[in-house]
UniProtKB/TrEMBL annotation:
UniProt name for this protein: Uncharacterized protein
Length: 286
């Protein structure tokens, strides 16, 4: 359990400033440095810092060239809509970070001459105005928090979380989410939000894309959740849709960005930092 040269050098400086006899101060300084050093080495944190640096130097961290297979998926979606005589005015796209929501939204928008909006997580804490025509909306918590009856069709990207996480590391942007969020839980709730609504599921060939067209009477997500949970509408009204989805999956009612946080994410880093800090704090120059 060897401390980093950085913390040892900082301890030397602390000694010169008169903290040599204050073991607790030395320990806190060293532990903070070692913990920070450990956290900064995490793949997701490194990717985020690299992304920020590339933005500062005006470099594009993401590859904007789309594989031919993605264009094939777009053509399959267009053919599916055409088969049902659907000329969408509003579409909703959901999936975990890294699954390709923005890419899909951008290419579909180009195909249909629509605009697209990548919503921020702060938008998801309240009802968003989704009434703008000729618009595609996307977010990884879109279906669980918003009224999806606004959409002519909804598209869920049912990609394995391991693949989505690899893609986040490759693109670098949003890498910190890999360290902070429980991706499996994030996906399970999103997938449930997609599946619980009325409507047949169409699987886009050779892809992870799933589509539902809005039925004549809407998706009826809340009604279906009430029936599944055997709740009266009055009782269900005490909870948000996201909370009801958590309950339906056997969890306590939770909502918001923090509902998917890994509370023990940095426990190992902190423990490791304390041990290395203790070692560094006991360091004495010869």
């Amino acid at each position: 359990m060897t401390p980093s040269p950085l913390s040892e050098n900082i301890i030397r400086i602390a000694d010169r400033l008169g903290f040599k006899s204050k073991t607790s101060t030395r320990l806190l300084i060293a532990a903070a440095i070692e913990t920070g050093h450990s956290i900064l080495k995490r793949p997701g944190i490194k990717a985020t810092l690299e992304s920020k640096y590339m933005q500062l130097v005006n470099q594009e961290p993401e590859n904007q060239a789309y594989p031919e297979v993605v264009n094939n998926h777009i053509n399959s979606i267009v053919s599916f809509f055409r088969r049902y005589s659907l000329f969408p005015e509003r579409l909703g796209i959901d999936g975990v970070p890294g699954s390709g929501k923005s890419t899909l939204a951008r290419l579909l928008a180009e195909k249909y001459n629509m605009s697209w909006r990548s919503l921020d997580h702060t938008n998801m804490e309240k009802a968003v105005d989704l009434s703008e025509k000729d618009t595609i909306y996307e977010h990884h918590r879109l279906f669980r928090t918003q009224n999806i009856d606004n959409f002519d069709a909804i598209i869920y990207i049912d990609e394995p979380v391991s693949l989505s996480m690899q893609k986040v590391l490759h693109r670098k942007r949003g890498g910190y989410l890999l360290e902070l969020m429980n991706y499996e839980l994030l996906k399970n709730v999103g997938k449930k939000a997609f599946e619980v609504g009325d409507g047949d599921i169409f699987n886009v060939p050779e892809s992870f894309l799933k589509i539902k067209l809005r039925p004549a009477k809407g998706f009826k997500v809340m009604e279906n959740l009430c029936r599944e949970l055997e709740m009266t509408p009055e009782k269900a009204s005490r909870f948000s849709k996201e909370q009801l989805l958590f309950i339906s999956l056997g969890h306590r009612p939770r909502k918001g960005f923090t509902a998917y946080a890994n509370p023990l994410t940095f426990t190992g880093d902190i423990f490791d930092g304390l041990l290395k800090g203790l070692h560094a704090a006991s360091f004495r120059r010869s």
